[in-house]
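Structure in, sequence out. Go:
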C-alpha cells in the first residue's frame, strides 16, 4: 500500500477512536509495517497544518489523535 492509500484509513481510525492510537496498533489493524504508517501520518499532518482547519494531528500518550484547534475549543465545549 502507498502512503496515499494508507492515509484515509489512518484518518478514519483516528476519527473513530476515543483515545490516542499507537503506531503499532494502526499497523496491526491496517496490516502493514509500522514504517509504512509514518509517511501517511506525515501527509495527514501536512493536510491539517493548512490555515482554516478545525482539527490537527497530535502525537500524544504514545499514540496519535485528531484534536480540536485551540481557537475552536469553546465551541466544542458548548
Amino acid at each position: 500500500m502507498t502512503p496515499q492509500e494508507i492515509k484515509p484509513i489512518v484518518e478514519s481510525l483516528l476519527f473513530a477512536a476515543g483515545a490516542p492510537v499507537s503506531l503499532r496498533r494502526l499497523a496491526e489493524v491496517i496490516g502493514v509495517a509500522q514504517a509504512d504508517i509514518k509517511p501517511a501520518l506525515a501527509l495527514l499532518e501536512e493536510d491539517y497544518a493548512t490555515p482554516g482547519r478545525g482539527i490537527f494531528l497530535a502525537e500524544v500518550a504514545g499514540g496519535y489523535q485528531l484534536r480540536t484547534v485551540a481557537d475552536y475549543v469553546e465551541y466544542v465545549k458548548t
